[in-house]
Design brief:
Helix content is about 0%, strand content about 45%. The protein has about 100 residues and is mostly beta strands.
Length: about 100
C-alpha cells in the first residue's frame, strides 16, 4: 500500500527582509500518514491553526480537499516522491487515491 505524508503548518517563514515572498514552512509541523490504494481515503481533519500543508506521496496519487472530500483519478495529480505545499482551511481534510 502507498502512503501520503501530510504535514500541517500554521505559518510560512517570511522573507520580506530580503525582498521576497514566503520561502519555506516554519517548523515544527504535525505529520499524519494516510495509507491508500485504489479507493479514496481521507486524512485527519486539519488542526484549528493549520493554514498550509506539505504533502509527499511514495506513489502517484490524486488529491481532493474539503470538509468531506472524495478523491478521484481525475483530481489534482501528485507525482511519486514529489513535494508540494498547499494553502488549506482549518477543519478541512485531504482525500487521496492511487493514480
Amino acid at each position: 500500500m502507498a502512503k501520503l505524508y501530510v504535514t500541517e503548518f500554521q505559518f510560512l517563514e517570511n522573507a520580506n527582509d530580503i525582498g521576497g515572498v514566503p520561502q519555506a514552512a516554519k517548523l515544527p509541523g504535525t505529520t499524519n500518514v494516510v495509507t491508500f490504494t485504489t479507493s479514496s481515503v481521507q486524512s485527519a481533519v486539519f488542526g484549528a491553526n493549520t493554514r498550509f500543508v506539505r504533502v509527499v506521496s511514495d506513489a502517484p496519487a490524486c488529491l481532493a480537499s474539503g470538509t468531506n472530500p472524495t478523491a478521484t483519478t481525475s483530481g489534482l495529480r501528485l507525482a511519486a516522491e514529489a513535494t508540494e505545499y498547499f494553502g488549506v482551511t482549518p477543519g478541512q481534510r485531504l482525500a487521496v487515491i492511487g493514480a
